[in-house]
Specification:
434 Repressor (Amino-terminal Domain), mainly alpha, globular, single chain, 72% helix, 0% strand
């Protein structure tokens, strides 16, 4: 099945993502030849990371070119992540490792969100936002810049406080979610600065880290 893109994504920025898909598929096949079927899950994660990273880079490029607004990038990346995972599951195919697309998505999404490529995407998005801010009238861009800056600040603050604790405890974000008895999406959305958990959730997250709730960044 063909790789789909979010609605209204500029066609001028599609070709590099298609090229990345071709390269990713070749690397996926090569990985199976080298490592055998036991490497299927690792190869599938790499495939998805390459696709999403390529899309994110092009989305940031589109922001710099004025083709899309910076505030639309995050939702576009989330939508492309879903579309790319559907494509990967049925195109490669991956049914020998996962019984359904949902199982594939749920297992790999946390790894994708914790990858270096995902972190680099946020850094690139911040640079793209700064570039857009320098090229646009301050009065026109100020609201979106403020919103984006708040998200970036929350993400930086939260990760700086939490990641050393997770590392010391030998926990992944998914493991933290398990100990806190919350869905993994709660942890990833918190770390990415997207949400402000309810008080009961904050209490559980802090307890799983072994810290006071007041020490958990807002």
């Amino acid at each position: 099945m063909a790789l789909e893109f979010p609605p209204h994504f500029p066609s001028a920025f599609v070709a590099p993502v298609i090229a990345a898909r071709i390269r990713a598929e070749r690397e996926f096949r090569d990985e199976l030849v080298r490592g055998g079927m036991d490497h299927g899950k690792t190869a599938a994660l790499k495939y998805l990371v390459i696709l999403v990273a390529a899309f994110g880079q092009q989305a940031c490029g589109a922001v710099r070119a004025g083709a899309i607004q910076v505030q639309s990038v995050e939702s576009s990346v989330d939508e492309f992540e879903r579309l790319a995972s559907v494509h990967a599951y049925y195109e490669l195919p991956l049914s020998r490792w996962w019984p359904s697309w949902e199982a594939f998505r749920d297992e790999l999404k946390p790894h994708l969100r914790w990858s270096q490529e995902w972190q680099a995407l946020f850094a690139d998005l911040e640079r793209a936002a700064e570039s857009a801010a320098s090229d646009a009238p301050a009065s026109a861009l100020r609201p979106s810049k403020s919103k984006g800056q708040r998200l970036t600040d929350a993400r930086t603050r939260r990760r700086a406080a939490v990641e050393p604790i997770l590392k010391a405890k030998g926990l992944s974000p998914a493991g933290w979610a398990t100990q806190a008895e919350v869905d993994t999406s709660v942890v990833y959305d918190y770390l990415d600065g997207k949400t402000r958990p309810r008080q009961a959730t904050r209490n559980g997250l802090a307890k799983a880290l072994g810290i006071a709730e007041s020490k958990l960044p807002d």
